[in-house]
Amino acid sequence: MSKLARWLSPVIGALAVAVTSLPSYAADTFNWKMVTTWPPNFPIFQTGVVRFAKDVETMSNGRIKIQVFAGGELVPPLQTFDAVSQGTIELGHGAAYYWAGKVPAAQFMSAVPFGMTAKGMNAWFYNGDGLKLWQEAYAPFNVVPFPGGNTGVQMGGWFNKKIESVQDLQGLKMRIPGLGGKVIAKAGGTPVLLAGGEIYTALERKTIDATEWVGPFHDERLGLYRAAQYYYYPGWHEPGTVLEVIVNKKAWDSLPPDLQKIVESAASSLNVTMYAEFEASNNKALRELKEKYKVNVLPFPPEVLKELRRLTKEVLTEESAKDPLFKKVYDSFTAFQADNDAWTTVSDDAYSEASKE
Amino acid sequence: MSKLARWLSPVIGALAVAVTSLPSYAADTFNWKMVTTWPPNFPIFQTGVVRFAKDVETMSNGRIKIQVFAGGELVPPLQTFDAVSQGTIELGHGAAYYWAGKVPAAQFMSAVPFGMTAKGMNAWFYNGDGLKLWQEAYAPFNVVPFPGGNTGVQMGGWFNKKIESVQDLQGLKMRIPGLGGKVIAKAGGTPVLLAGGEIYTALERKTIDATEWVGPFHDERLGLYRAAQYYYYPGWHEPGTVLEVIVNKKAWDSLPPDLQKIVESAASSLNVTMYAEFEASNNKALRELKEKYKVNVLPFPPEVLKELRRLTKEVLTEESAKDPLFKKVYDSFTAFQADNDAWTTVSDDAYSEASKE
């Protein structure tokens, strides 16, 4: 053995050990893009996605780098699902009801009128059939979904007249998308579709009579209290909208098990921390709206809610008749909700009543 | 250059590149132990901890290996905190109120009578002062805490007589630990401390008149429906008990940033998935208790709950006078809860009432 070889021998030995003890994929890095349905810097929504991307990068020690783009920065907001489906983009964040045109059943994975709140949704996803059905619904599109946030119960919306009976919904022009809009149409109103940026002006100029948006925090930021007098609760149409992290199937399959688990864990973590941020922000904003802006915060009359619930069942039954997967998911959702409602009655509901002054 | 050196040269070059492109700590592995306050295989609690350990190992690709021990397997359940504090054990899982003797303020980090439910607790932890105060409370013990699970609202307990008025609490011998026990004592009852394994026999032999345990799922497994006739709700004394992942400070500091984030993310993930499993399991078990075992599920009378709430304030005020940190945490908790209650009234509570038949 030459002198050099003798000198190198232990070094090579050590390097060989170090290298063989590392898994073969350790040096692979993934430079991924993530697009969302949210405006740039949209608080809680988009800022939460940025936190998710940073968490994944930190946990993977830079082996996954995620460049985050808000809606419109790379693809239009409502093309998020398509971009991830086609694989031009690896990751997306949005809400499943945006893809109702493609996957009607997806609406159950975000929000359905008179459906379950966050705690029931998570129980259905993680410990019922929810996530399995969601994966089934997205599989034909090569998209892998994870629950990745929850808005909590939303508000019923801003109205420029009082809603005192079912008759007051007749002729009401309200900005309300999706299934909620179908219910309003059945009640004799006119659902209007408007992007977030158009709502304030339409309401202020009385092009519309009412609008729903999110909850106190986001509604305050949009200044809706200056455009309409009455702020109604509860958000019967969106009782806890689930947000989603979606991954292109091929991109997902290309990850080794450690990185898959990192993405999954970061999504679960986002699921709980984003919901917490909504709650904390809405807590404060509701107080401000009442104290600072003297907003009239009013409950929908029970009679109105009862009628909206009845009409919701009609809408969901009609949609079920059109699409077998919708029906399959509706059946699972409804059965789970029945047990969840019974438990909530003796737990959260009874407790909440007991604990307040 | 010798022949051997020439042959080795590109190999060494490649190895050098591979090694320098990896962070210096990549080869470090951490063989950690984790002890818990739970019995072996205790469903949801202990099984969740095992899932956490597996997730951390998967995400770190084996760089953190965690050997999980149930209560008593390595150290007695209630010495979990001490073992982690001393650093003989790196990780623990339990509930903060078990350490009330050492850290009275810790009770706010698990459950206080008439306190916040899971959603409020998470909002206070992640987006209020909750987690900061928790870290402050554990810092003198070299323990780093993370929220790592939630039981949801518990049940009020099993009673062998009906509770129809405040007078029925007089002389009641009830297994109920912690602050709840202090409240029962103020109401004229006698709180009794019993480990989980002793409860059934004590109740069945009428050594005690009543007991609280967890929720429908765990209560059914313990067979409590065979030992007492009346099952009361809500669990005013434990409205959403937070479970904790605790890490020895020195062990925590020894982790590189990627592994720290992996542990933190796995804890947040456990926080949401364990709560979901409680909900899903309680949903089913409540139905079974009612349908299969014909259990009388009864609400505490409003008058009784009102009195327990009044007595809780007395207890918390007394405890505040004894310990400045308790007072500091109580003040933060109370202020946060006030806003959270107001928001819950127009969101979850109003929604829940509207959505049920």
UniProtKB/TrEMBL annotation, chains A, B:
Query: Which Gene3D superfamilies is this protein grouped with?
Result: Bacterial extracellular solute-binding protein, family 7, Periplasmic binding protein-like II
**Pfam families assigned to the protein according to its UniProt record, in alphabetical order:** DctP
Annotated keywords:
Metal-binding, Signal
Carries keyword Metal-binding? yes
Q: Which GO terms describe its molecular function?
A: metal ion binding
Q: Which GO terms describe its biological process?
A: transmembrane transport
Of the GO CC terms on this record, one is:
tripartite ATP-independent periplasmic transporter complex
Name the positions where substrate binds: Q154, R175, E212, E238
Q: Which InterPro entries match?
A: DctP_fam, SBP_TakP-like, TRAP_DctP_sf
First and last residue of the signal peptide: 1-26
User: For binding Na(+), which residues are annotated in this chain's numbering?
Assistant: W213
Q: Which PANTHER family match?
A: EXTRACYTOPLASMIC SOLUTE RECEPTOR PROTEIN, PTHR33376
Q: What is this protein called?
A: TRAP-type mannitol/chloroaromatic compound transport system, periplasmic component
Organism, by scientific name, is Beggiatoa alba B18LD
